Amino acid sequence: MGWIIRAIASGFVAFAAPRIAIAAGMPIDIWVAAMGEWLGASVSRDEALWGVTLAIGLALFGIESWRHPVQRLWGALIGTVRSEAHKEDSPTVPLTPDWPMKELCQHVLNNIDDSEQVIREIETKARLGDLACWGRRHSALSASDNPNPLRPIQQEHWDEYSLDYLRCVMHEDLAECCTEPRDNRGDHAQSFQDLQVNRQQSLSIWPERSD
Question: What pLDDT score was predicted for residue 6?
Fold first, then answer.
């Protein structure tokens, strides 16, 4: 039993000794020579002890070599799981309407001096879902007195409806900005008035001019 304990202890020494010696500044060739001399002495004294010591030392080296890639793989896996969990714990704040569409049109006009192009750009962003829009269903009353609730405008709406250029660019009343059927194919009753967007989202698409 005693020789097994000595073998285990010697195996750990064989595993740790080169690290300690090299960290202390011992040249590797001197360490190899000393290690060879020690192993030779061990063989001459007790072949069984030397064999178990060598096996333990090699096993520890193997475990260390195997441990690093496994640790990297485990770390990457845990990092991915934690990242996904963090995403789930951080819900996206829903957008809210806080900016009249007419003011967005005027803002984009400051960057693009072509009102028709401005209308096309805004419609395209809305149709693709990049720009959230809200409005009130068309009412027989004036846009300012429209009693219908403000509601999100679905992307599909823009396939058959477009922004009313005159009301969204030229009209003074912000609530008059509305959608209208394309080529008279749509129903005016399904159009929207008092169009609004989210200011932060809009400015992320069309930033403020720096000059």
Answer: 61
